[in-house]
Design a protein that fits this description.
single chain, 182 residues, alpha+beta, Porin, eight-stranded antiparallel beta barrel, 19% helix, 59% strand, globular
């Protein structure tokens, strides 16, 4: 009986080796020279769905090294505000360049980075902004990933305003999306 059990376990383990080997050889993520495109969304609403916001962000990046990506990001946001004496719709956008450093070479790749650009549109002061960001990319396929990112952006009209703006005039931007390396 012991020989049968040992033989069964051995055959099962041998049968699993090709699966384990193929899982180990699965390489995910980008390499130097690759590009990436991602699209992300954000939104919020009050309890009665009278007021809300909706936004979309697209990124196009180039891998300068295996772990460093530089690119451009465009966001478009819509807000519908309804209150006691207010009902209005607002559109705004933001265009910025970014530089991110990704950690690890696994399916889960946390990153940190910075951005610099401008914001414009209804209900905002047209101004420049700089930002710090952190997030994670999780590869569900060899070149396709889920994305979650949080950015802290601080706004300024001139370089003299930039040093005070980090503490006094900032905002958080959160996105969740899907990306692809090519």
């Amino acid at each position: 009986m012991n020989r049968l059990s040992t033989a069964t376990v051995t055959l099962c383990l041998l049968g699993a080796l090709p699966i384990a080997a193929s899982a180990q050889s699965l390489v995910v993520g980008p390499h130097e020279g690759d590009r990436e495109f991602s699209i992300s969304g954000t939104g919020s609403s009050d309890q009665s769905f009278d007021s809300g916001t909706l936004g979309v962000t697209g990124d196009l990046g180039w891998y300068l090294r295996d772990h460093i990506v530089a690119g451009v990001r465009q966001s478009i946001n819509y807000a519908s505000i309804e209150g006691e004496n207010i009902q209005d719709d607002f559109w705004n956008g933001a265009t910025r360049g970014y530089l991110n450093y990704q950690f690890l070479e696994n399916q889960a790749r946390p990153f940190v980075g910075a951005s610099l650009g401008g914001i414009y549109g209804d209900g905002v002061n047209d101004s420049g902004f700089a930002g710090l960001e952190a997030g994670i990319k999780y590869y569900v396929l060899t070149k396709t990933y889920l994305l979650a990112r949080a950015e802290y952006q601080f706004f300024f009209d001139s370089t003299d305003d930039a040093s005070d703006a980090f503490q006094d005039d900032g905002a958080w931007a959160h996105t969740v999306g899907l990306g692809y390396n090519f």
